From TrEMBL:
<feature type="transmembrane region" description="Helical">
    <location>
        <begin position="215"/>
        <end position="233"/>
    </location>
</feature>
<dbReference type="Pfam" id="PF04387">
    <property type="entry name" value="PTPLA"/>
</dbReference>
<comment type="function">
    <text>Catalyzes the third of the four reactions of the long-chain fatty acids elongation cycle. This endoplasmic reticulum-bound enzymatic process, allows the addition of two carbons to the chain of long- and very long-chain fatty acids/VLCFAs per cycle. This enzyme catalyzes the dehydration of the 3-hydroxyacyl-CoA intermediate into trans-2,3-enoyl-CoA, within each cycle of fatty acid elongation. Thereby, it participates in the production of VLCFAs of different chain lengths that are involved in multiple biological processes as precursors of membrane lipids and lipid mediators.</text>
</comment>
<comment type="function">
    <text>Catalyzes the third of the four reactions of the long-chain fatty acids elongation cycle. This endoplasmic reticulum-bound enzymatic process, allows the addition of two carbons to the chain of long- and very long-chain fatty acids/VLCFAs per cycle. This enzyme catalyzes the dehydration of the 3-hydroxyacyl-CoA intermediate into trans-2,3-enoyl-CoA, within each cycle of fatty acid elongation. Thereby, it participates to the production of VLCFAs of different chain lengths that are involved in multiple biological processes as precursors of membrane lipids and lipid mediators.</text>
</comment>
<dbReference type="GO" id="GO:0102158">
    <property type="term" value="F:very-long-chain (3R)-3-hydroxyacyl-CoA dehydratase activity"/>
</dbReference>
<keyword id="KW-0812">Transmembrane</keyword>
<feature type="transmembrane region" description="Helical">
    <location>
        <begin position="322"/>
        <end position="345"/>
    </location>
</feature>
<dbReference type="GO" id="GO:0042761">
    <property type="term" value="P:very long-chain fatty acid biosynthetic process"/>
</dbReference>
<feature type="transmembrane region" description="Helical">
    <location>
        <begin position="188"/>
        <end position="208"/>
    </location>
</feature>
<dbReference type="GO" id="GO:0030497">
    <property type="term" value="P:fatty acid elongation"/>
</dbReference>
<dbReference type="InterPro" id="IPR008978">
    <property type="entry name" value="HSP20-like_chaperone"/>
</dbReference>
<dbReference type="InterPro" id="IPR007052">
    <property type="entry name" value="CS_dom"/>
</dbReference>
<keyword id="KW-1133">Transmembrane helix</keyword>
<dbReference type="InterPro" id="IPR007482">
    <property type="entry name" value="Tyr_Pase-like_PTPLA"/>
</dbReference>
<keyword id="KW-0443">Lipid metabolism</keyword>
<keyword id="KW-0175">Coiled coil</keyword>
<feature type="transmembrane region" description="Helical">
    <location>
        <begin position="146"/>
        <end position="168"/>
    </location>
</feature>
Length: 360
């Protein structure tokens, strides 16, 4: 009987190799390792009909001797564990790929995607810890969740008040509402943004797993705009830029805070989850552009009023205008946009990759 080679498809993770052998109704299956080379032989129906098929693959790096395999009516699935968990540049020791070998695109991931999957698995492992054992280890878990729930509830109510107030005034007054936004909503925005400082403190205390630096960038950037640009310059308080900045901020937060609030009690609404992980894609860059417009409009005012100017030695001049610092801040603002956008995008991919695995 003619001996043929079956089609073999492969994929990898940091610690494992997956092989899919296109051989249906496999019989007399024989799979073993010989000096780091996988040997395969079986009788079954492959690309050349019913025949005996066999192949061998010498792996690029050492693997563990245990081989897990499963034969179905359609194919043979093989899983081999790597000796050292690391990413391989290719599967085989020989640089030229065997003609019967191809990537398994159904399971294929690049290295960065595999790292995200590994991180998501670690997060799922943590989430599967028995609730009772967690309570014994952390007797203040209920108190922490209660604090986070109340914090997110207060912020949700505050930003909802701002959003509804601005929306109603926009429908009633039209464009005229642009010019008195600060005087009608500033007190509540002051309160919400001062409360937001807790979002920088919470990661440091281990209350949330959110990154410290993304939270610091967002809170600091917003407070500069609110307290320095709008709060200290009366000339800026009647500018339409205030309306767009406040409206975009509140549009993001009325979905973000209730999402975290429900997460504290183990509840999820699919629509709210989608809004939380999708609306920021257009709104966050638009918010940064609105903030940049406000900063640019404030530059001549700081030059004229000399407010917050830095005194210099007499040999260098009288003072350094605060507008120069704001020009540097403009560059940092868009750098912060890139950092936070990348962070949020990774969060979104990790979230939906995790949900996709649960569905499967």
């Amino acid at each position: 009987m003619q001996i043929l080679t079956p089609h073999v498809y492969w994929a990898q993770r940091h610690g494992e190799i997956f092989l899919r052998v296109e051989l249906s109704d496999a019989k007399n299956l024989n799979i073993w390792l010989q000096e780091n080379t996988l040997q395969f032989s079986a009788q079954g129906h492959g690309a050349k009909g019913d025949n005996e098929y066999m192949f061998s693959l010498e792996f690029l790096e050492p693997v563990r001797p245990e081989i897990n395999h499963k034969s179905t009516q359609r194919q043979v699935d093989i899983k081999v564990k790597k000796q050292v968990e690391r990413w391989w540049d290719r599967l085989t020791l020989q640089e030229k790929k065997p003609v019967f070998l191809a990537p398994d695109f159904d399971r294929w991931l690049d290295e960065s995607d595999a790292e995200m999957e590994l991180q998501a698995k670690e997060e799922e492992k943590i989430n599967r810890i028995n609730v009772e054992s967690r309570v014994r280890k952390d007797p203040y878990l209920g108190l922490k969740k209660g604090y986070l729930f109340m914090y997110n509830l207060v912020q949700f109510l505050g930003f909802s008040w701002i959003f509804v107030n601005m929306t109603v005034r926009l429908f009633i007054l039209g464009q005229d509402s642009f010019y008195d936004t600060f005087h009608t909503t500033a007190d509540m925005m002051y309160f919400c943004q001062m409360m937001a400082v807790l979002e920088v403190i919470n990661p440091l205390l281990g209350l949330v797993r959110t990154g410290f630096f993304p939270a610091l960038i967002q809170v600091t950037g917003r407070n500069v705009i609110l307290f320095v640009i709008f709060g200290s310059l009366e000339e800026m308080q009647n500018q339409p830029a205030v309306f767009f900045v406040f409206y975009l901020w509140s549009s993001i937060e009325i979905f973000r805070y209730p999402f975290y609030m429900l997460a504290c009690i183990g509840t999820e609404w699919k629509l709210l989850t989608w809004l939380r992980y999708s609306l920021w894609i257009p709104l966050y860059p638009l918010g940064t552009i609105s903030e940049a417009v406000a900063v640019i409009q404030s530059l001549p005012i700081f030059d004229e009023t000399r407010r917050f100017s830095l005194p210099l030695p007499a040999a260098l001049g009288q003072s350094l205008s605060f507008s120069y610092i704001l020009q540097i801040y403009l560059v940092l603002m868009f750098l912060g946009l890139f950092i936070n956008f990348r962070h949020l995008y990774k969060q979104r991919r990790r979230r939906y990759r995790s949900r996709k695995r649960k569905v499967q």
